[in-house]
Amino acid sequence: MLYSMKQTAIGIDIGGTNTVIGVVERSGDVLLQKSIPTATDGNALAFVENLSGEIRALVATVRQTQGDVQVNGIGMDAPNGNYYKGTIECAPNLSFKGVVPFVDMMRTHFPEQETIVLTNDANAAAIGEMIYGGAKGMKDFVMYTLGTGVGSGIVVNGQLVYGHDGFAGECGHTTLVPNGRNCGCGGKGHVETYCSASGIKRTAFELLVRDNAVHSLLATKSFAELDSKFIYQAALQGDAVALEVFERTGYWLGMAIANTILHTSPSAVFLFGGPVAAGELLLRPTRESMEAHLLPMFKNKVSLQPSQLHAGDAAIIGASALVYAEKTDN
Amino acid sequence: MLYSMKQTAIGIDIGGTNTVIGVVERSGDVLLQKSIPTATDGNALAFVENLSGEIRALVATVRQTQGDVQVNGIGMDAPNGNYYKGTIECAPNLSFKGVVPFVDMMRTHFPEQETIVLTNDANAAAIGEMIYGGAKGMKDFVMYTLGTGVGSGIVVNGQLVYGHDGFAGECGHTTLVPNGRNCGCGGKGHVETYCSASGIKRTAFELLVRDNAVHSLLATKSFAELDSKFIYQAALQGDAVALEVFERTGYWLGMAIANTILHTSPSAVFLFGGPVAAGELLLRPTRESMEAHLLPMFKNKVSLQPSQLHAGDAAIIGASALVYAEKTDN
């Protein structure tokens, strides 16, 4: 009986607006998932209590509808999630203030769970890629996540790099252009100001300004409205400015990725996030720039590819995969 | 009798001009060392044979003069030394062409030695720092070596990062300034064009040009003559241009180091090489720029410090330490 029981882990993706909870099978299949609003009142204790109730309810439903399951642990990702301490620390887009001992708070609700782990979303995506995606069997690879910001997860010798304090892998905030665009973090010229979805938008307006390109399709949208999806569609219609946006973005992204490759020499770099839907329109110039910015002995060795995780489920699958990464480590 | 025997490893530093061989005790003390010219005729087989003879002679002399010693392995560093393959690959400043299977060639002369290891000089310096220097007991740290170029060695979870192909840790060739100064490797704006000893000299001339500073002490030397030591001495005498050179260099170096910290989150960064003799004149602006370029959650956590290895012996000590790093891994 025990042997036929489905093995699962809970994956939780805590975002600025919503928190998604999934019961994920060992195969990577999501048995059931639910989205709840992330607390906006700063009350982490109440939020954890609410979240715990939702988890129990979700597992109960799975058991009623799909047969008994074994829950092997809880994996979570959150902005500024610290792997070592199990804390969420001063996350700018969450309402929780200061340092929240999130894993400890979860433990009071799930004393029976040995494995409760927290990290940030890019690290979770990297682990997800390693356990369920294109990085299966790879010992050294890097994940770049392109969204509102740019995140990254670095795997060396088969292990995620957390660094001495649990915050490693912030490639999005390395300086790409000294004294360049203002970054949300207060810095200047960071990778995410050029390569995130909003970085792409900023590049579009930079080109509109440079060329006074009033006839571009991109000139029909306000700064608040324009997004990378619209730019992609304009590029498909042959809009010259939109096409150049992808060339420029690929140039910056390839340079950033080359800098990362020169650090840890991965065999592959995976790209995840909305802008990656542009496919070769983004990947080709990125690959060209990456190769151009590598030392000769690194050239033509590193595979640049889109993530193989399903976009919709990737966050909870990645979070759930943390549980298995944990069990393999020991 | 066996227990009183001194435990040693052979450390070999293969440079463009000279190759230094040392018999290094487990404590890090160099019992005896010798420098021989590195082959300039491209004949690696003959060079390895010569080198092997010199090693045997050196060990014999140590045994005659200092009592019997146990030799536990041979650690070597060379430009473009590949840890995994034991090869020296297309090193621009060595006469050997293509891919030289250096470790295999050494094995034919030392079949009794189980541990024969090769990597590049910055990686060897990092291992030396970990086993004999300021990084003792650290799990996550980075070594930057400032010389003709800029090298680096990255340690994560107590292990040197070699990457998928053995060439990781080339921070000196990450792009610091897009379309910046020409680098010897063919790239542009690399860290080493700003932060190496020659990068410092280039900055000096840039400032002389900017200000037409004919009265600076630095204006008395030709481009071929000026070196970072002279700039340091001029700075000590209050020369305004020389002082600004260190401010600018620290600014660039701090930015480069911050980029590395954002990748692997080390607890310390060590600096090694000639320019580090300038002490706080270089370290203060580097530290300020490093902190300024870090995300808030990384600030005031990373110790920036000069290497604690003795400059004269560091290369062979680091190379010999490779042997012990190897034995600890297993």
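Residues 240-264 of chain B form the longest helix (25 residues).
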